[in-house]
Amino acid sequence: MTEPPKPKEGDENCLICRRPKSKHSPEELLTCSRKMEEFKKNTTGGAGIE
């Protein structure tokens, strides 16, 4: 298998959508950060499973 391209130095990938953070619009950054906070608060279940 081939490896995914490595991000440029200082260009982290978003943990939510896997896109480089530098490619996010301000709205996308806000959405992904909110989703990350929700995930940190409630780590049980997944995909709507309780």
**What's the overall geometry?**
flat
Cα Rg: 13 Å
Q: What is the count of β-strands?
A: 0
| β-sheet strand percentage | under 5%
Largest sheet: none
In angstroms, what separates the terminal alpha carbons? 35 Å
Regions with little confidence, pLDDT below 50 for 5+ residues: none
Helicity, as a percent range = 25-40%
Question: Structural class of the helices, strands and pairings?
Answer: mainly alpha
The total of helices stands at: 1
Instruction: Give me the strand/helix succession.
Output: H
Overall pLDDT, averaged?
78
Polypeptide structure, described:
The protein is flat, with a radius of gyration of 13 Å. The model has no long low-confidence stretch (mean pLDDT about 80). It has one helix and no strands. The chain is mostly helical.
